[in-house]
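Form 7-S
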Amino acid sequence: MNEWFSPNTVAAFLSAVAALFAAIATWRGPLSAAKLSESLRQASDQESERRRFRLNVFATIMQERAQIYSMDGVRALNSIDVAFSDANAVREAWAELYQALNTEPMPEHVVDERIRKLLREMSAELGISERLRLDDFGRIYYPKALSEEHKLQHLERVAALSRLQNKSSPASNTSSAEQDPWPPQPKHRE
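Output:
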């Protein structure tokens, strides 16, 4: 029984245990590395997609800042809370712009200032332009021809809306006494 606890026997047993663990590590190592690699790739893809979405929202607002109420501008503004969900400074700037956009009458200079602030916060969050000033976001090329075309479209829309509202309003559906082909009803005497 003494030979079971001899140094050679104990060394052989420990060597066998070490070999077993080495075999398990050799078998599991590549599997674990593959799983780790896949999870890192997925995380990288998600972060890449998130950054692409944020850049798209930022670029759209930059491009549409001359006419922020365009369809693309409105879509980008409505995506801010999702795209920048973890950026408090961006969301606060968006909340301030939202408040200005919903004020009647809408103070244009306040809206412009808040758009610039929003763009500055977004660019800082993206790490693309920390050295830009608010005035840098205010430089907008907006040709007179485009301005006139948008004004014409606006006037046509207002005229069409007014025309349609007048046709369907209840006051325009009632006939006046001058247009009534029937004589007035007799009045009863009491």
